[in-house]
Amino acid sequence: MTRNWQTKRLGELCEIELGKTPARSNKAFWDEKRKTGNVWLSIADLLNAEDNVVVDSKEYLSDKGAAISKIVSEGTLLVSFKLTLGRLAFAGRDLFTNEAIAALKIFNERELSKEFLFYFLHFFDWRKAAENDVKLKGMTLNKAKLKEMPVSFPALVDQKRIVGILDDAFDSIATAKANGDKNLQNARELFGSYLDFATAGCLTKEWRRDHENVEHASAVLARRLAERHTQFGGKGKYKGPDAPITVKSVDLPKSWILASPEQIAIHIVDCPHSTPRWAKSGVLCLRTTNFKPGFLDLESVQFVSEQTYNERITRLEPKGGDVLYSREGGIMGIACMIPEHMKMCLGQRMMLFRLDTKLALPEYFTAVMNSTLILSEVRRLTNGAASPHLNICDIRRFPIPLPPIAEQHQIVVKLNANSADIQHLESIYQQKLVSLGELKKAILRRAFTGEL
């Protein structure tokens, strides 16, 4: 223990009250229109606290629901202790919480400052405290263990001094982080604008002036579709690919044409509609969490057995140059390309395009699928959906601005150069954000080892 500090159990210092969740099946307990003012917090609401104070929530209780719940007084320190550990905020008004949040009402604020306790619990090693209490979905504690948590603290005057230092330091870090977040967002928006310029033909105006005799994309598309018809070996009458659906006109250079993915791809394959049987090792199986605009993020991956892999590639075995697209859930509307020489299969909520490379380069097609033009289509098709997803039949008819293949090569070169610059900037900003997080930990460590 730090010299001249004392240590007591949390239960000796605070009254610990847990919230509750009234029966979801009884609508009389809930205020869906949020008119009662009976704010009811979940752990997610603590994360949205502004300046560490939470005043509102997505869910309210009815007066009937409030009557069977414990009210938390304004100013009370709140902490999550189940599954997501150690999220902290102060109640900005009288409110209610669920059972995963503990309200800590200090018995004697002349002994322990709630602001000091707030910072101490930021410093506290929650993972270590709960390492023997891992449940199905994560680590958790209970009220009895909360009561036994050791809290070390100095005299009140020193608590106030430490809190003042930490307030100033954390305010400066928050400002620096906000600037870093803004710079990161600006870098991404800059590349998005560049992407839109590229897929509208703005980056290759001079190239087109110098190459006026290049065969127009419309002629190449017509020829390739005719060849596809000729090569048709299936049964029954041949049905050609559908043209794109356009809600509003798209201005294109005269050598370009608006085509659909169905017209320019030789294969469009949906993922298997089953959850993969995961294995500790084996063959890579992609999830949409691996999707980043233009590339795959393989920092965190999962695997399946060789047998499961073979089951999941019966429609088509993915290969380098295929384009993947997320079509459901929170990570929706992102296109990326499979690198060469990567053995993998598809997880869920995604689809695959294998392009006719005489019509479209995978890199160019990926860029278009991540552009504002297609993202606006995604928003139009999913507007207001509680569980957003895109139908494959709609995706197959997205409007794709298609330049001649030679011009696509020029566009890809320019995009790659710009992408490298943007990724370098992102790397710098991300590292700064990581460093700020480490700085917070270092300052807290100094504070609670008596070095401040």
UniProtKB/TrEMBL annotation:
The name under which this protein is listed is Restriction endonuclease subunit S
Recall the GO molecular function terms of this protein's record. DNA binding; endonuclease activity; hydrolase activity
| Pfam families assigned | Methylase_S
Organism lineage: Bacteria, Pseudomonadati, Acidobacteriota, Terriglobia, Terriglobales
Q: Has UniProt tagged this entry with the keyword DNA-binding? A: yes
Q: Does the keyword Repeat apply?
A: no
> What's a GO biological-process term for it?
DNA restriction-modification system
User: Where on the tree of life does the source sit, at the highest rank?
Assistant: Bacteria
Entry keyword set:
DNA-binding, Endonuclease, Hydrolase, Nuclease, Restriction system
